[in-house]
Amino acid sequence: MIKSTYSDVGSPKPHYPALDGLRGLAIILVLLFHNFRYIPLFEYNWVGVDLFFVISGFLITGILLRERNTENYPQNFYVRRILRIFPIYYFSLLLLFYLLPRSINYSFNTEYFFRNQKWFWFFGENWLFIVHDPGNKIFLAGHFWTLALEEQFYILFPWIILLVKNRSKLISLLLAILSLLFIGRLLIAFLHMAPSTYSNLYEFTRFDGLCIGALLAALLHKKTPLIRRIDKQMASFLILGIVALLIICPIFNWRLPLFASSFYPMIAIFWGLVVRSSLVEGTFCFSVFNNPILKFFGKISYGVYIFHWPVYKIMELKLREWLMHEISSTVGVNLTLSFLAAIVAVLIALASYYWFENKFLKLKRFFA
Fold it and tell me: Could you give the number of structural domains in the chain?
């Protein structure tokens, strides 16, 4: 018998077991994209970031909708987010800015990195990449722009939930934001900005996933038969959108601006449908993502995300030359380096979760 788990969305503390597995899928996709990006199969695995956004938008909006009429809203919410995000984030900044440069000789765009470090300390990395374009230079905290984007969502959205009491108005607002994001990217395309600026501006406008997740939570907040019809409409919209994308984009030679304008919302809607299906016991998605291996990676996903890129780049800098002497094949060197870096990142994330993060996570119960 298929049983929907969204019936408890309005309960004090609902749990969605398959979403832990979905987090695991998201971090595996990101890890494959960064560590194995030279393999064509993993070229588009950056979509794992959009899955993180959808999950965050869904869970955070659900929490805020349940708590907005409770005492100490939104203070308790902010404290819980701080306990989850700040300790490992700021510890990693201390490592990357001050400890590692003094113990390891590396040169990953350190001048840019140190000159603009205030942006990182205040979660403004996505703005930094627009205001001061780093170009193609590599630095070890470049992937932190996603954390900045989510943090800005966490800061603003509690007040939106508090001010927009009516659920229909909240849904309309989220749809309006999605429309503005789409129009904004089209305007960027028609302004003919430089290619590097395109990428940076699109990172800033990647709120699609957060909006889709929030929209899903708003729709499920109160049980309504309308949700089944909306499920079908979203699926139909996604299929039509993909077909339109495949027809229109070749006409424009898959130019980045026009492609991204449509591609990002399509990805977000796709992951929204996956999240929605994962909430329903007995579905394929629930069965796939409610398994211990993916849930294990989901549990340590934040630490893996923080550390995997610095670990890979530092190991590449220190080991590549030695590996080239030991392994004659370039493919073999790349694969060995990628696997070693992935294993080290997972081990560091495990240690971080159980010996560092957990100490702060246990404090969250005082702000429930």
Answer: 1
Task: Report the C-alpha gap between 245 and 258 in whole angstroms.
Answer: 9
What percentage of residues in the chain have a pLDDT greater than 70?
78
The number of CA neighbours under 13 Å toward the Cβ of 45 is 19
Reported confidence tier of residue 344, pLDDT bands at 50, 70, 90:
very high
Contact 162/74 with Cβ under 8 angstroms? yes
In the chain, DSSP finds a helix count (H) and a strand count (E) of 18, 2
Pairwise CA distance, residues 151 & 153, whole Å: 5
**Exposed / middle / buried, residue 161 (Cβ in 10 Å: 0-12, 13-18, 19+):** buried
Torsion of CA 24, 28, 34, 39, to 10 degrees: -160
Q: Is the peptide bond before 74 cis (omega within 30 degrees of 0)?
A: yes
Q: What does the pLDDT average to over 68-88? A: 93
DSSP 246-315: HHHHHHTTT-HHHHHHHHHHHHHHHHHHHHHHHTEETSHHHHHHSSHHHHHHHHTHHHHHHHHHHHHHHH
- Please state the pTM of the whole predicted model: 0.89
Please report which confidence band the pLDDT of residue 347 belongs to, taking 50, 70 and 90 as the band edges.
very high
The parent domain of residue 254 ranges over 3-367
Please list, in sequence order, all residues whose beta carbon lies within 8 angstroms of the beta carbon of residue 218, skipping any fewer than 6 positions away: 61, 65, 167, 170, 171, 174
Instruction: Convert the pLDDT of each residue in 260-318 to its tens digit.
Output: 667 788 888 888 888 988 888 888 889 999 999 999 999 999 999 999 999 998 898 88
CB neighbour class for 218 (10 Å; exposed up to 12, middle 13-18, buried from 19): buried
Chain centroid, CA 44 distance in Å:
14
CB atoms within 10 A of CB 46: 15
CA distance 294 to 26: 10
Q: Which range is least confidently modeled, 152-166, 248-262, 296-310?
A: 248-262
